[in-house]
Fold these 4 entries.
Entry 1:
Amino acid sequence: MHIRHFCWVVIAILVVMIPSERRLFGAPPFPAAPIPKLSFDATANAPIQSTDWNSNRVTVLVFLSLDCPVANRYAPEYRRLSERYHQRGVRFIGVHCEPDTTREQAAKHADEYRIPFPVILDPHGALIRATGAEVVSEVVVLRGDRTIAYRGRLDDRYTLDGKSRENPRMRDLVQTLDALLADKSPPVAHQPAFGCPLPQPRSQSK
């Protein structure tokens, strides 16, 4: 009787220690479906369609903000990686999701921080809904079919409590891109990122 009681106690402890099925099986916190067909205004004159990304071997969505210090500090790294991987079929896209950010403001921000890749406006947060992104500075890596391969931090320069180190030890985006370009799966599908909260997606009718 005592042994049976002990076994139930152990089982109860294990149940408490496993917070959810998602955590148990490591399911990534983003949809499995491809990014839907969407159209965005861009800092350039012509709108950008999400279907355009099918011609890329890999697409990297970089969530930006006019005044998020974390994302702005990463600007040189965004630029370096976009130039490094461009010849291998990787395209970076900057995404502004603040509802009040104008095309002129986004263009000025890109010029100030020397962002060399296209920048789109997503005032309704369609890409937030489609990717599950939570903070500015997150990156979302898409395969050629617009399914998500990775979402999360660019590297471990920032810890989740906001502390920073001069040089990162883990370069998650680099590892993801290198794996995909070698026709392999990324080492991990998600790494939580520290940054400024993204706005709540709003209805298209507003």
Entry 2:
Amino acid sequence: THVDKHLLQHMVELGEKDPKIGFIGPKIYHYPDEGFDEKFIQYAGGKQDLWRFEPQPIGYGELDQGQYDHNQRVDFISGACILARTAMIREIGLLDEEFFSYREENDWCRRGYQHGWFTCYSYQAVVWHKGQGSTRNQQPTILYYMTRNRFLFMKKHASRVQIIIFILIFVFFDSWYRTAASLFYHRQTRLVFCFWKAIKDGLKILSQ
């Protein structure tokens, strides 16, 4: 990860504008193969909902042409770089260890929102990040936690109706797409096993 030297300055300045800003995240670029003139966006904040919970990074893969050069409130920010307000942490606590890896920042931002704190994207703060740098050779592990933790997030934050809709969409549509992709594109039966184990464990979480 490569960090712009003015990163903290811009994030702190944004946080000082509103005492109810709890989380601040930077504009994150994909780490380039050659030189830092390449500026393809990885995150400009993110969107999430409580019906399907498939978090979407804003601007992912787009060439930065200034289209996200404005500070704004977002649903969540990437866990690659987070500035969190101390007063908020005292109120809502730290990251939930039950997630272990992946989706924990989504939960943290949601918990902040439920207590009246905002999550903001700071366009002037910049980071170049290697996605999945700590788990690059652990694809089944990534798939397991990203899948299971969708259920855990829904258990914590969604209504009964939202959970029912989520299960219907996931089981009858998303799951078969992922299974086909694992078998025919990745050609890894282990991915299928990990995926369905995650669904089994996720459904168990919802039933508790």
Entry 3:
Amino acid sequence: MKYSLLFLLVGVPGMRAAAQPPDSMLTRVQGYFELIRTVCATPQAKLWNKDLDGPVLFVEPATRKAYANRPDTTGILRAAGGIYTGVLPLTVSIANTATTWAGVKWTMMLLPLPADKDRAVTLMAHELFHRVQDELGLPTKSPVCDHLNTKEGRIYFRLELEALKAALRQPVGRERQHHLQQAILFRQWRYRLFPPAQALEEALEFNEGLAEFTGVYVSGIARKDTGYLSAIVDNATTSYPSFARSFAYLTGPLYGMLLSQKQADWQRGITAKDNFPDLLIKNYQLQASAAQSGDPQQTMQLAVTKATREYRPSILQEEEVREQQRIAKQAVYMAKLVQGPVLELKLSKSMRFSFNPNTLFPLGEEGTVYPTMTLTDDWGRLVVTGDARMKDWRLLYVAMPANTNKDSKVIKTAEWELTLADGWHIAPGKKAGDQMITKTQ
């Protein structure tokens, strides 16, 4: 079953956007379109042998006012100042994403863009890649990697990141080889501990990872500032609540830039069957199996001890503290969204939603918590500001306070707002206190 996923806040972590007076936005957007045309004409923008320029929608979230570089097919967008403007319907989810609306496949970006030009171009190129991604044969798979919210999963992921950072600081040669082999070792051990991890991680890396690599490569931001990628990783380590859905924004640029420094145009001809570790092993002639002879567990313990001392001695202690916090947070979510009274919403194939990939919290078999999201489906529109639980891409749950007024078309609580479409209402759910959305007979 294919759903449309729209991702908020997928630009460079930690970037700050400068607010602009409303009357200056048209002029500013005209400049954005000129910047896109200029950037897409550069040699680095040809990295996929595909023109990244195309239909673009810039949208102001508060007003839903859109600015486009071409008209739509419904007449909502009207010519103004050499571009097209209009207000998007509430049925259109807005986010940084590629989306099909009014018969056109658009690159959509939220206003305002980052004030820093290089960071703005990074975001632009990331989203422009998503629009042509299907044409490259690279599907937009978006799994949630639950194992990267566990203590062991995070330890080996963070050690991999530290090894990749160290490799990037070295020129191509023996020292870089050493750090790359370490990165492969920690990734392969993670896959051994969590067998489903490989397919999940590789799928997301060839979606969001390649998109973020494209942004970084086209903007040249990592070439101008050689410490840029390391700073992004360090910021993510301290500010991301979870790596479960955000990790590929880190590994994509790291692996991509390391590959580009060894083999130009490595990305030409790759398919969905390829993956970053195998490409790294091939291009740098690393050992295909990084595990050493002898007892694997003992070998890994020695490798972890050596790597933490070499890269970041505090990793194990930091992750032990975080694990205790995770356990406590999980208990809160279980009480609120599994054991307590909830509103159940069934999801259809037409469901569309936007969310922040940096904040997801996996609950194992009970699904994934999205602290914030905006979702539209046949039954209407839901805006969540205080936690929702999605399970199997088929069901969504939000906490249902006992005093909620269920008889209105617009139902509000302190944590969410639901606008029901005509022909739908709220009815009693499966257990006491639960409610569900159902179609009126």
Entry 4:
Amino acid sequence: MSTAQLKEKLHTFIDRGNESFLKVVYGVAKAYSEEEKKGRITIDQYNKELEEAEAEINSGKYISHKEVKNRMKKW
């Protein structure tokens, strides 16, 4: 099904849906929208986060894969 067909079907479902259905669809759409906003950062922010992460690694502030595996065994 194409994007246009999906949109048309969704519009039909929304037009025919009761309040309960509409609240569910709204909740899903709102959650998706909020996740999309969270995931977007500027290139400057991205580069800053990379630099900070590299600085932590270079200063020894990291946990090795072996240590993570050992910690997981204790869960």
